[in-house]
Specification:
By secondary structure, the protein is of the alpha/beta class. Helix content is 42%, strand content 16%. The chain has 12 helices and 14 strands. The strands form 4 sheets. A 6-stranded parallel sheet has the order 2-1-5-6-7-13, sandwiched between helices. A 4-stranded parallel sheet has the order 9-8-10-11, with helices on both faces. It has a two-stranded antiparallel ribbon with strand order 3-4. Helix 5 links the parallel strand 1 and strand 2. Helix 10 crosses helix 11. The radius of gyration is 24 Å and the shape is elongated.
Length: 346
Amino acid sequence: MKTTIYDVAKAMDLSPGTISKILNNNGAIGAETRERVLKYVKEIGYVAASSARILKSKFSYSIGVIFSDISLVGLEHPFFGSIIQNFKTYVEREGYEIVFITSKIGDHEMSYLDWCRNKKVNGVFIVSGNINNAYIRELVASDLPCVSSDIIIPGMHSVISDDAMGVRLGFEHLLSLGIDRIGLLAGPQTSRAFMERFDAYKALLAEHGLPLRPEWIRESHGFGYTSALAASDEWFATLADLPRAILAQSDDIAFGLIHALRKRGLRVPEDVAVVGYDDISFARLFTPPLTTIRQDRRAIGETSAAMLIDFMTQGNGKGTTVNRVPVELVVRDSTTKAPAPSAPHR
């Protein structure tokens, strides 16, 4: 049986990407490791039989990852951080390595495409980003296959949560509790996901014959707890008639909202029920434990990885598809009790 790069990688306890870099004489590989691999492949005759094919294909077994974190949380982001980890685990199991692509290191700036070419990556996983970013659009328009877990752009494949499904699950859960006075605390509408959730909320009001009350809708200008708390404080200071329930567009936003309600002497869920979105790990530990929409971060990461590897190896990666991953309603104490007959503004 013919020896493959995977056989060499297994024997050396290294990734195929590392073996490829050594045979291609590129990448930051330690001298001792490089010498050990070259000696081994020479002994088994692998170089004479296979290196020409590898060099000709220029396949590096490396994947670029772009994480443009507009929330400024970084890799500890409770949603996108988990997606990156699931993606990384999958591709490494298949013999690939990942390299983070940035547009600037120190004072030196390059486009994402230039960095990808410099790193010789075979494909790119855009974890999150801005659809109006010129560097992202240039990259998607190139011949490199791209998959995103956040944004939708023509010429790229996207694997995202079914946001309309998630809002419907939360909305109809509240209706099942006899609550039809439902407000919305939105996240920044620069986010594709938040925009889709906002549109779904408005569509559900119309579907159920409920009035759209602008005073029951508020946008937080940031992605986290502090921004949501500030937005909620401003909102409640001018709102004479509170809704009986509020859909928050993320769990972090829900936490800030609940704090603001408590500051005004309101009880959750007795006075105002709250539904979050994401089901981050802290949601079940919060007081009260948060009813929320669980996104399948593992499915998003692994599906993205499988698709990208297929596109890189089969050469069919420049279409446009949107794969929407189902979500799940998780009911906890922030909605389980029936609301009081009225929710006075205090």
